[in-house]
Amino acid sequence: MKLITYPINPKNPAALIPVLLGLFWANKIEGCELIVFRDIHEIPKKIPGFDVETWIKGKYDPKFILTTHNSVNPVVLSFSRTIRISRIEGKWLRCPCGKVEIFSENNIKLFGYNKIKMIDEYNKCVACGEVVSILEGVGLIAECSLNNEAIKSILFPSIITKEIQSWLSKLPETPIMLTRSRDTGYKIKWESQEYYLDPTIYNLYVTWDYCQKHKDSYIVSGRDTVLFYSMCRLLFGFDVNHIFLPKINIENWNLFVNLNFEEAVLLLISSLNWKNNQAIVSFSDLQFIRRNLLLLVDKMEKLSINDVPEISKINRNFLNLRQ
Ligand SMILES: [Zn+2]
Question: What is the β-pairing status of strands 217-222 and 155-156?
């Protein structure tokens, strides 16, 4: 079995969440390994000097080496035969850095202009701070048809299936933008013209493609990727096994990255509640964890998981040391 993360930003401490939990579970499931893809883009540093890989290797000698393979040639990227790809020309909302790139007044109406997350109340891009303007341009969009086929893959926790089905019925109403006008580093050819593929779609495809080729694998990521899951299923025409973590809130990242491996994992697993979307890491547990570290590490070492649904057994109750 393999657990896989979407390409991570190694400079972003939040990437530690799927990596640490993935490593922990991979350690507990016989013959399981964790594959971590690295996003190859230049990434701003949130905590100076922080790097996920260095953090893991400095604190823990992993049985499962972090793999940073992220190389599917976008030219060979294959979309589902049921989607319609078309070239569109017209007006786009754009900012100089290229993070804001939204086509057509239709989409603006659909999302509500002020609800577009990348644009602030002063009509400026939240990434570059420059004014967003309306410019002429071209790009590729995909329109998906309704797909009522049942999902064959394993989704954990299973309550997520409903949410995905709801997106699967809503998404075909909205065209999905496939390309960007800025140089994203990923060129695709369509009807003998070249375009730059959207980097998020590239990252999703790399991970899904890997998962499809390794049938016993599961993607591990946050609950906020439910929309992506639904989008990928429509775009690529297949489904994959997936573990959706709750949205884990860590208020003090500086404190978290200074913990040792066991403390960090214990804090994470004790925050897990699989029925809720939200989980909050409670640093007040740290005192208890440190006082009982030997017992808890012993409990962690003895634990084994036979199958993914058994992951639900590991939650806040893990800190209960009574036999
Ligand atoms: Zn911008």
Answer: unpaired
| Distance from residue 76's CA to the centre of ligand 1 (Å) | 29
Q: Report the predicted TM-score, pTM, of the whole model to 2 decimal places.
A: 0.87
Ligand 1 centre to CA of 119 (Å) is 9
Q: What is the pLDDT of residues 268-322, one digit of tens each?
A: 999 998 887 888 999 999 999 999 999 999 999 898 898 888 888 888 888 888 7
- Centre of ligand 1 to C-alpha 12, Å, is 20
Q: How far is the CA of 123 from the centre of ligand 1 (A)?
A: 11
| Per-residue pLDDT at 107 | 58
Give 116 Cα–ligand 1 centroid separation in angstroms: 13
Provide the edge-to-edge strand list for the sheet that holds 217-222.
33-38, 2-8, 217-222, 241-245, 155-156
Ligand 1 centre to CA of 321 (Å) is 51
CA of 201 to the centre of ligand 1 (A): 19
Residue 105: the pLDDT is: 57
Answer whether 101's CB lies under 8 Å from 136's CB.
no
Sequence-separated (6 or more) residues with CB below 8 Å from residue 263: 286, 289, 290, 293
Partners of 2 in beta bridges: 33, 217
- The pLDDT of residue 136 is above 90: no
Could you tell me the distance, in angstroms and rounded to a whole number, from the CA of residue 134 to the centre of ligand 1?
A: 13
Between the CA of 97 and the centroid of ligand 1 the distance, in Å, is 4
Q: In terms of Cα–Cα distance, which of 139, 229, 219, 147 is closest to 180?
A: 139
For residues 3 and 25, is the Cβ–Cβ distance under 8 A?
yes
Ligand 1 centroid – CA 53 distance (Å)? 29
- Phi and psi for 6 in degrees, rounded to 5? -65, 160
